[in-house]
Amino acid sequence: MGKIKEHEMDIYDGKKSKSPKLCGTNYPISISFIVVNEFCERFSYYGMKAVLTLYFMNYLHWDQNLSTAVYHAFSSLCYFTPVLGALIADSWLGKFKTIIYLSVVYVLGHVIKSVGAIPSVGDSNIHIALSMLGLIFIAFGTGGIKPCVAAFGGDQFDEEHANERTKFFSIFYMSINAGSVLSTIITPILRGDVQCFGGDCYALAFGVPAILMVIALVVFISGSGLYKKSPPEGNVLADVCKCIGLAIKNRWNSSKFDPKRKHWLDWADEKYPRRLIHEIKMVLRVLVLYIPLPMFWALFDQQGSRWTLQATRMNMAFGSTFVLKPDQMQMLNALMILLFVPIFDMVVYPLVGKCRINLTPLKKMAAGMIFAALAFGAATLVEVNVTKTVVEPAPAGQCLLQVYNLAESDIKLEIPGTLISEPTKSYEDPPLYKLLQLGGPSKNITTVVTYNGTTYQCVESFTEKKAYSLIVHSSVTGIACQLASDNIIKSKNMEAYLRFINRRSEAVNITVGAVDFYVAADYGISQTKGVERKEYTNVRCRSGSQEFFINLGLLDFGASYTVILEEGTVDIPQKMEDVKANNIHIAWQIPQYVLLTAGEVMFSITGLEFSYSQAPASMKSVLQAGWLLTVAFGNVIVLIVAEGAGLDQWMEFLLFAGLLVAVSILFSIMAYFYTYVDPEELDKLFPDTKVNEDQDDLKKHQMGDYMNLNLTGKSTKM
Fold first, then answer.
1. Can you say where in the cell this protein is located (predicted)?
2. 628, exposed or middle or buried, with CB in 10 Å at 0-12, 13-18, 19+?
3. 290-390+583-718 belongs to which homologous superfamily?
4. Are 48 and 138 contacting, i.e. CB atoms less than 8 angstroms apart?
5. Which of 57, 495, 583, 636 is least enclosed by beta carbons within 10 angstroms?
């Protein structure tokens, strides 16, 4: 991207401007505004994005596949729009005005998104419309300013202060990660621990990032009088596209073979200089290597979607007091990247070098792909074990059934179309649900119950795809049956589901935490409600004029319980576990985060380093745009798979792992045939077209420092 500094323009006027400096240093005061702006903006973006998938599922009530698809469509748009932001900044408005105007769009997106999360604002269609409009504005805002802010910070330094500029980018990078880490910790707390409008407070979880973005804009504008502002110079990306377009057009229209034009790009030499054409050839060779790269990002960006959804079905408790939230696990990646970068640079790579292994940049990238594939292999193993606690819904023409024997002794049931025919013990927690064949949408089925040598018949109506509990109990006539509809879907809010069956002769009112239950007398069944996961040792019950307390014990993550209330004051009632609790601890996700972060260090940082080293100074912005587009297309891949594959989650994880292994093999073959080049040789090849030294050096410094930020930092957080 073309950049001419204000102080360089002053040189042509016979003077050189000096911006105010921080006390006793060579750092311009203006950079403090830019660093604070970046911290607030990254807090705003990652805070909103951390709770986005759960918002889709719990507030908009979308299923997992649609939630994942929209999440990745938004992520993809955020990485398509930087190209647009760069074009606007370099060809029209300049970086300063681009940041201002698109930050206003950014703020509007956050405000619209927050308003859409208020239940009283319209119906569900209004909520969806506001949410999608807000996300589109946010994507254009964050993507549009992405290529501008870091480079604008580099513009603030005089050329003689190159070392200070390099240190600034390290500070800038720290502000990015600080904003990311803090937001992924804080916004899930605002979502889950603060209750508003009768549930999780998504309006607050989106509102606080909106406030941070307003602060970011105000802080940035506050430094306006101190900034050096570069005027737009024209975008090299547009020149590259025009040159390629002309070459294709001329080659297509020509029917003659020209031996002087050995490469198809040479057909643009009638208008464009040979040096530019040669530089484009160098860039295209690198861009060809980019073709397999989106598959890595397809896996990497699922931390905020599929991995977060996996966490909702795991045990999040650490000890008896601290409970992690599923959307907080994403902070692991940001924390570990800070740890892994120096470890790899100072320990891992030197040790590999001592083993006489030539670990080239492309080999590192291929190894990074393998680490990411291993991460999804680990995620597959976790998912297989997680699904063991999940009750799969019945298919069409069938339903699920379990039997509660609340009679005084064992019974024997015979139910046509099911495996239930063995004796059922009294008050025993029933085994797994059994499939009941209906042969259609619904059916009346006669159940034969043998109790104390006497046979009874119960006729019940069943509907396909539902889950039921058949409650068999003693009555004045011997045996009676009652059919209850069950909830088998695990709570998306990390709650436990609870219901009561009342054997008492009087109705009972029960308060569990902040949730009230009412159970009618004589085998009445309460509504199933979600309660907070915790130990309930002193639950208050009121029955007529009597008050008593019961001990429900631990009501755990994701479980569904049925509690039997007996006559008298039984302190510890019978508790049935209809759906098992999440028994796989969230700590089992740590290995997959470790592997993926290791893969990111080897792939992402090394990839940017490789791109920088293989591109001419004037073309580095083109490769930066190409790199961001690989992230965008990676999210498109997830969108397609989530909506089209229809696989079980563990199979989908395994599919992604296998695809990335195959892609890494393809990339390794392409890398084997790639020949590394030295862009500095261009001056020797084209001495007659060498650009003005001052401008060339200036561009190298600016683009080099901008790339250094990416080389030492987490590129996807830019």
1. Membrane
2. buried
3. MFS general substrate transporter like domains (1.20.1250.20)
4. yes
5. 583
In angstroms, the CA 331 to CA 593 distance is 10
- CB burial readout 280-318, b (16+ within 10 A) else e: bebbeebbebbebbbbbbbbbbbbbbbbbbbbbbbbbbe
The bridge status of strand 529-531 relative to strand 478-485 is unpaired
Helix, strand, coil percentages for the chain (3-state, nearest 5)? 55, 15, 30
Q: Provide mean pLDDT across the span 43-57.
A: 94
Region 473-494 average pLDDT: 88
Range name among 50-54, 276-280, 331-335, 471-475 with the lowest pLDDT average: 276-280
Q: Is the confidence at residue 83, as pLDDT, over 90?
A: no
CB distance 562 to 469 below 8 Å: yes
CA distance 462 to 444: 6
Q: For the chain, what percent of residues have pLDDT higher than 90?
A: 47
Average pLDDT, the chain: 85
* pLDDT 10s digits, 510-549: 999 989 999 999 999 999 999 999 999 999 999 888 899 9
Give the CATH architecture of domain 1-234. Up-down Bundle (1.20)
Over 628-644, what HEC string results? HHHHHHHHHHHHHHHHH
The structure tokens listed for 230 are 């570069």
Looking up tokens 């992690």 gives 324
The token pair at 173 is: 């990078």
Residues 378 and 595: beta-carbon distance below 8 Å: yes
Encoding tokens for residue 507? Answer: 């109705």
Task: Report DSSP letters for 426-451, one per residue.
Answer: TTPPP-S-EEEE-SSSEEEEEEEEEE
Amino acid at 703: M
Q: Are 135 and 206 in contact (CB under 8 A)?
A: no
> What span, in angstroms and rounded, lies between the C-alpha atoms of 171 and 280?
33
456 alpha-carbon distance from chain centroid: 55
Tally of CA atoms within 13 A in the half-sphere of 614 that contains its CB = 26
Cβ pair 649, 387 in contact under 8 A? yes
Rounded distance between C-alpha atoms, residue 718 and residue 710, angstroms: 8
Closest CA to 643 of 62, 38, 1: 62
How would DSSP label each residue in 6-75? HHHHHHHTT------B-TTSS-BTHHHHHHHHHHHHHHHHHHHHHTHHHHHHHTS---HHHHHHHHHHHH
Q: Spell out where 99-200 has E strands.
A: 195-196, 199-200
Q: b vs e for 127-138, b when ≥16 Cβ sit within 10 Å of the residue's Cβ?
A: bbebbbebbbbb
Q: What's the N-to-C CA distance of the chain in angstroms?
A: 17
200, 66 Cβ separation under 8 angstroms? no
Whether 150 contacts 706, CB under 8 Å: yes
| CATH 1.20.1250.20 placement within the chain | 1-234, 290-390+583-718
For every residue of 305-351, DSSP letters joined together read THHHHHHTTSB-EETTTEE--GGGTTHHHHHHHHHHHHHIIIIIHHH
What does the alpha-carbon distance between residue 125 and residue 321 come to, in Å, rounded to a whole number?
A: 39
**DSSP codes, 550-611:** E--EEE-TT-EEEEEEPSS--SS-EEEEEE----SBGGGGHHHHHHHHHHHIIIIIHHHHHH
Cα dihedral value 275, 277, 282, 285, nearest 10: -170
Tell me the backbone φ, ψ of residue 449, rounded to 5 degrees.
-115, 125
Tokens found for residue 339: 């740890």
Residues 6 or more apart in contact with residue 226 via CB below 8 angstroms: 19, 20, 28, 29, 30, 33
